[in-house]
Amino acid sequence: xxxxxQGERTFWTDWGTAPRTVVVFGGSFDPPHRGHIELPLDAAxxxxxxxxxxxxxxxxxxKDRAPGASAEDRxxxxxxxxxxxSHCSVSDLELHRVGAGPxxxxxxxxxxxxxxxxxVTFRLLxxxxxxxxxxxxxxPGAIVELAExxxxxxxxxxxxxxxxxxxxxxxxxxxxxxxxWHRRVVNVPTVDVSSTQVRALLRHGTDPxxxxxxxxxxxxxxxQYIGARxxxxxxxxx
Length: 238
Known about the structure:
- By secondary structure, this protein is of the alpha/beta class.
- It has one domain (about 1-190): HUPs (Rossmann fold, 3-Layer(aba) Sandwich).
- It has ten helices and eight strands.
- Helix 2 runs antiparallel to helix 10 (about 220-230) and helix 3 (about 105-115) packs parallel to helix 5.
- It is globular and about 50 Å long.
- Residues about 1-10 have low confidence and may be disordered.
């Protein structure tokens, strides 16, 4: 599965020989950490999907701060993290959208749907908190139609029954019976890491404890990229 550019649009040029289910996972990836990389792949395997599409956002409409690293660097870090892995790729669709400002999921899904064969199914991978906030997203009904949500439930989070009950109580246009939400929930391991935590550790890159923590939380190619580019006030070789 490859991408090609024409003007400011990014589109599929090779879908392979068989229809597939594509899990779309968006985020700032500022910087990407092991949770960003591993959890989507775990979720895809759990539902039998055969591709994960990582989608860095220009700027999330749900976050007050703009990304700390440039779009180019966030894209570069994510590509470095995924190098050598199969069944996944990175899209720069949102980063190169004309007049890129806040990235709205519904716009991205529409572009993907228009570009892909009708035989391709998209699933939108989101966290439990994001799923519960879905009614406040732009055109939530269209989002659900374009890419059925796939909701990650962390192993140390709310019980599956409790989460499904809360999702089933969501108002229209995303409301659905508990039986529907039950099949939309996928259990994933708890990865106790955030980009905020990683950025804080990088600012203390000379500290041996910070270096050790970073090696556990961030893929080595990403740390090398950060050090080479001097991102987040990082010390080279952190």
